[in-house]
Write a structure and sequence with these properties.
With about 80 residues, this protein is mainly alpha-helical. Helix content is about 35%, strand content about 5%. It has one domain (about 1-60): Arc Repressor Mutant, subunit A. InterPro entries: BFD-associated_ferredoxin, BFD-like_2Fe2S-bd_dom, BFD-like_2Fe2S-bd_dom_sf. It holds the Pfam family Fer2_BFD.
Length: about 80
């Protein structure tokens, strides 16, 4: 679900930012750009912050994000020079 339509910021992005340490609306604005255009999403985004209606959802969503993550990326890219 989109929290901020103007900036295409999803619920998951807000949850991730909070899980990584955002503690107030100013943090979300600085990290994601939430509520920096029309501002209609400010109240909804604030509900994900500690003490908000959806704060418990942030912990559940971030459960798999905390701790070390190992990623292996395999890619083959053909590079060709153009004269």
């Amino acid at each position: 679900m989109y929290i901020c339509v103007c900036n295409a910021i999803s619920e998951r992005q807000v949850q991730d930012a909070i899980a990584q340490g955002a503690t107030d609306l100013g943090d979300l604005q600085a990290q994601l750009g939430v509520a920096t255009c029309c501002g209609r999403c400010a109240d909804t985004a604030a509900e994900y912050l500690p003490g908000g209606r959806y704060a418990a959802d942030v912990g559940a969503a971030a459960g798999g994000l905390l701790g070390p993550v190992e990623v292996t990326v395999l890619s083959r890219v053909a590079v060709r020079q153009v004269a």
